[in-house]
Write a structure and sequence with these properties.
The complex is a heterodimer of chains A (218) and B (794). Chain A is an alpha+beta fold and 218 residues long. Chain A has eight helices and eight strands, in the order H-H-E-E-E-H-E-H-H-E-H-H-E-E-E-H. Chain A has one domain (5-203): 3-Layer(aba) Sandwich (NADH Oxidase), CATH 3.40.109.40. In chain A, 43% of the residues lie in helices and 20% in strands. In chain A, strands 3-2-1-4-8-5 form a six-stranded antiparallel sheet, with helices on both faces. In chain B, helix 14 (339-351) crosses helix 15. Chain B is globular and about 90 Å long. Classes of the chains: A alpha+beta (218), B alpha/beta (794). At the A-B interface, helix 2, strand 1, helix 4, helix 5 and helix 6 of A face helix 14, helix 27, helix 28 and helix 30 of B.
Chain lengths: 218, 794
């Protein structure tokens, strides 16, 4: 797991501005401190998957979501995945918010880059295993994307025993703590993958987001 | 014989997995196993009996997740399923006719505690209380707190069990491959806290199989004085075709466990993936092996939520700066509830090498208990150093000890009977090392012998509470040499005797020695050096003093506790050069440039220099604000990006601090442009954006009342009314919490129609903001400054 430096800068809104070497060094040191102090953990399980209209059954989990149904169409199996880089990022943000706000912002960005990178790694592991069985992965899809309700986190957490296995918990409002954590559904299909990774942005309502990937609206 | 009588005298056996057995019988993923206590009682009874048949003598009742949080919305109550679970376990034991015990099994609540999570310590405590009370009523023989990965949650559970039952308490935790809990505590920290809380046994469960767990045990045996429990999985969980499996079979499991038993443990059993077959093999292999011999390790330790600090041959630094005595700026911070100032003091001392932080927040005009509560909780969120709770108010002391995530240092008890009667029971209850002042009803003895006598009296009295010498830290009291030439000698003689003859650790408030003298640091340094040589275990000093820290590091190199002088070399081999570059860097840089370039230290120095010749207001209007404007414009034109903006903001803040100090010295105070309430709305816990806005608004001279995150709409309205603000800023990150933003705005508009509301956050757009009735949508931090400036100028 690492914080891709380019991604980190992108999350910070970097657009080629002139940077003093001291700032570049600060970003580097902060990213390294985060990487060293983080202990990424993940858990995933495979379940039978059924899609009936907009109603999806993944194991005992029932979800009503048009967007997820489109994503999982034709999948007979699906993986539920939860991953986290741990509490270090949150602790660093708290600490640096007191004494060095710029560092806090860098941790925020580097943490986002770390968890993305780590989930990619875990997904790669799932992909390898699936390929051996002649299965292909659909793009991962998380609660909160499109109309996939955040409330589904409750069930996913219970099914994967997230708090016991990887130390991720839910707040009253279904947000994850540690904050640099991800849950996702990954459909498994016998057919070559049909949709592209960029689907996520096209489903998001924040059309003026500076991080929005271009030209991906459906 | 009771469990407690047998514990440590014979090898005892916990049973194996419940969940694994239930899954085989059709428990679905995500289904709550505890509900089977009611729905399929026979299955649970049968599994217990199989384990009893296998030779186990402690049955974990099926109550692991029966806590009130997990029961919410299931139609069952915590009490109901807990009681039922214990009853089934007891029935299985009775029907099997074996001499076995039913353990109330308590797992994690599945929620993260404050400050990182949204569950308060007391709420966690209440939830555990419900389980403990129900479990004991139903006849449990012991309380097993297991699969724990957060020391704070463990503490809540242990206190609940201690304060509401008479059950023996066993705690087992899940350490990862680095030997740490998920929340970061290492083994020393966890053991220090648990032994301090006086649990009956502790150990490991889940996470790994016996092979890997075996590797953790030498360390655990080395540091633990009480019985050790080990309940491993049947190997590491392996995902096969998307399903979790455990591969270690009964024979292999028992073979490794036998080796572990021979090396020494007190109780063993199984966790995930283990079956009655595993346990049968285990009991057969280990039945004849005696339990580990218990020895007192006599470690003098305090701990934080991450690590322990051991007092021994390597002396330790206790940072003294969090204390209002003689510091007007600190007093002001306490009166203003300016916790950030206190946190900065903490971080500065940590940077300078303090091992433990003293926390004294007593001031006659403030509510010390409340302040202690806020500061201890807050500090635990930003520094991982152990804290020394410094107060003479027993209620504040108990509040802090209770909320403290670890084993604290307590400052202090003294030889007065009343003091000992107050402090020792608290230490016995919560654990902790205690600073003991050698004074009593007759005052401070003027001889070394007199102080030693009091030390002996305190040691004896502590023993009555089961507090041994290892947990005492005797302070032979530093009195200034300006009032008595013998003072240093008396203190040091007593100190030497306490450390080397009584064999108890020592501490001193070092800097008192020079009170009333000029150039105090010179005397302090010399005295500190001599005290270290006489056996000072921990000095309470100002770590920001370069000279004191140099003396300390040199002494450690000299007394051999700094192995191969590594620390000394690491600290001082580069220093000549860095000192030079630092001075050249801050040489002639102007305040304006320092802010633009984001150099906080230079900004502070440059501001001080400016103030020698110019008026504060001039410095603000002609240097600080133009510099901030320049950077702010750059940010909006995208020639400056976020970290640069924030570095400049921090630099400007350092400049403003210099001005504030200057004004305070002249007895004046800085004026604010007006007050603004800001908050991250209910349900949302991501507040970095709000914090950035706060820093910038403060830079531009606004007084910001920061209500924090996850704030109830009512509280926002209340604060806005109380401070009569004309602007409230709200942030939200998630689509789901924007709804709470809308509620908050609505309430504000109804109650305080003249108050404007600005909003910001990741998912917001102008359209969204309009929809929920906000007056202004700020797409970034500078936007909020611009809006506030316009609004307050009008």
């Amino acid at each position: 797991m690492r914080a891709d430096r380019k991604e980190t800068l992108r999350y910070l809104g970097y657009g080629g501005q002139e940077m003093e070497p001291q700032l570049a060094q600060m970003i580097e040191e902060t990213a390294v401190e985060l990487e060293k102090g983080s202990s990424p953990k993940s858990i995933y399980q495979e379940y039978a998957c059924q899609v009936l209209g907009d109603k999806i059954k993944i194991g005992e989990l029932t979800v009503q979501s048009h967007h997820l149904a489109v994503n999982l169409k034709g999948c007979e199996q699906a993986v539920l995945l939860a991953a986290t880089i741990g509490r270090k990022a949150d602790l660093m943000i708290r600490k640096y918010s007191v004494c060095n706000m710029a560092k806090a912002a860098v941790v925020q960005a580097a943490g986002a880059a770390c968890i993305e990178n780590y989930v990619d790694e875990v997904e790669e592991e799932i992909r390898k295993n699936a390929r051996e069985r002649g299965l292909y992965l659909r793009p991962r899809f998380s609660p909160g994307y499109g109309d996939f309700a955040l409330e589904c986190q409750r069930d996913i957490f219970q099914m994967l025993e997230c708090s016991k296995r990887i130390g991720v918990t839910l707040t009253e409002g279904n947000l994850m703590m540690p904050s640099k954590s991800v849950t996702a559904v990954i459909g498994l299909t016998t057919r070559e993958r049909e949709s592209c990774q960029m689907e996520k942005c096209s489903l998001c309502a924040k059309t003026d987001c500076e991080f929005r990937q271009e030209g991906e609206d459906l | 014989m009771s469990f407690k009588e047998r514990l440590g005298r014979e090898l005892l056996f916990f049973d194996g997995a419940m969940g694994t057995m239930l899954q085989e019988r059709g428990l679905k993923s995500g289904e709550l196993p505890e509900i089977w206590n009611v729905d399929r009682e026979g299955v649970i009874l049968d599994i217990h009996k199989q384990y009893l048949e296998a030779g186990c003598n402690i049955i974990k009742a099926n109550t692991f997740g029966a806590n009130p949080f997990k029961m919410k919305g299931t139609g069952y109550t915590c009490e109901q399923l807990t009681k039922k679970g214990i009853e089934i376990a007891k029935r299985a034991i009775a029907e099997s006719g074996r001499r076995a015990y039913a353990a109330l099994d308590i797992g994690s609540l599945g929620k993260l505690l404050e400050p990182l999570g949204d569950l308060s310590f007391e709420e966690a405590y209440e939830a555990f209380c419900a389980m403990c009370v129900a479990g004991e009523e139903a006849g449990a023989d012991l309380c097993l707190i297991e699969t724990m990965n957060d020391t704070y949650e463990i503490k809540a559970a242990v206190l609940a069990a201690k304060e509401h039952t008479n059950l023996p308490i066993v705690v087992t935790m899940v350490f990862d491959e680095n030997g740490k809990l998920l929340t970061g505590a290492d083994m020393e920290a966890a053991v220090a806290m648990l032994e301090g809380l006086r649990v009956d046994a502790l150990g490991l469960n889940c996470g790994f199989g016996p092979d890997i767990m075996q590797g953790f045990l030498p360390k655990l045996r080395e540091i633990t004085s009480i019985p050790i429990v080990i309940n491993p999985n049947a190997g590491l969980p392996v995902v096969v075709d998307g399903k979790t499996c455990f591969h270690v079979g009964p024979k292999e499991f028992a073979d490794i466990m036998k080796k572990i038993a021979q090396e020494g443990v007190s109780v063993m059993g199984g966790c995930c993936g283990t079956t009655p077959a595993h346990l049968r093999a285990l009991v057969e292999a280990c039945r004849e092996i005696p339990p580990m011999a218990l020895t007192e390790k006599n470690r003098s330790v305090v701990s934080s939520y991450t690590h322990a600090v051991e007092l021994g041959s390597h002396p330790k630094i206790i940072g003294e700066r969090i204390n209002p005595t003689g510091k007007s700026r600190f007093k002001q911070a306490l009166r203003d509830n300016d916790l950030e100032y206190i946190y900065k003091e903490a971080l500065a001392q940590q940077d300078r090498g303090a091992h433990i932080l003293d926390v004294n927040v007593g001031l006659p005009e403030i509510d010390e208990v409340q302040m202690m509560r806020s500061v201890v909780t807050g500090l635990q969120g930003i520094t991982d150093l152990p804290l020394q709770i410094d107060t003479s108010d027993p209620v504040a002391m108990e509040t802090a000890m209770r909320l403290y995530n670890g084993k604290p240092l307590i400052n202090s008890v003294n030889g007065k009977q009343e003091s000992m009667d107050t402090v020792f029971p608290l230490a016995a209850r919560y654990g902790g090392m205690i600073v003991c002042l050698t004074l009593d009803e007759h005052g401070i003895p003027e001889t070394a012998e007199g102080r030693i006598k009091i030390a002996e009296k305190i040691i004896q009295e502590a023993a009555k509470y089961g507090i041994s010498k290892k947990d005492l830290l005797i302070d032979t009291l530093t009195m200034t040499i300006s009032t008595g030439q013998e003072n240093a000698r008396i203190t040091l003689e007593a100190l030497h005797y306490v450390r080397h003859v009584l064999g108890v650790h020592t501490t001193l408030g070092v800097s008192n020695i020079s009170f009333g003298l000029p150039q105090r640091e010179r005397v302090n340094t010399a005295f500190f050096t001599i005290a270290l040589a006489q056996g000072l275990s921990a000095g309470i000093i100002n770590p920001n003093s370069e000279a004191m820290m140099a003396a300390y590091h040199a002494c450690c190199a000299l007394n051999g506790s700094d192995s191969q002088c590594q620390d000394y070399i690491a600290l001082y081999s580069q220093q000549g050069e860095t000192a030079k570059t630092a001075s050249s860097k801050s040489g002639d840089i102007s305040l304006f440039d320092a802010v633009v370039r984001g150099l906080a230290e230079s900004a502070h120095q440059a501001a001080e220099k400016e103030l020698e010749t110019r008026k504060p207001l001039e410095v603000i209007d002609e240097e600080l604000i133009p510099a901030l404007d320049k950077v702010g414009q750059g940010f909006e034109n995208q020639t400056v990006f976020l970290p640069q903006l924030l570095m400049s903001a921090d630099a400007a803040k350092a400049g403003f601090d210099a001005i504030k100090e200057h004004l305070q010295a002249e007895g004046a105070s800085s004026e604010s442009k007006g007050s603004i309430v800001i908050a991250t709305v209910k349900g949302d816990i991501h507040d970095i954006g709000k914090n950035i806005v706060k820093v910038l608004l403060e830079n531009y001279g606004f007084h910001v009342i920061d209500l924090g995150k996850d704030v109830d709409p009512e509280l926002v309205v209340q604060a806005a009314r109380e401070h009569q603000v004309k602007l409230v800023g709200l942030s939200a990150l998630m689509t789901t919490t924007v709804a709470n933003m809308e509620v908050t705005i609505k309430m504000l508009k109804e109650e305080l129609p003249d108050c404007k509301v600005m909003v910001g956050g990741a998912v917001l757009t102008q359209t969204y903001a309009d929809m929920i009735g906000a007056d202004f949508y700020s797409k970034d931090a500078m936007g909020s400054v611009r809006y506030a400036n316009e609004l307050f100028q009008a």
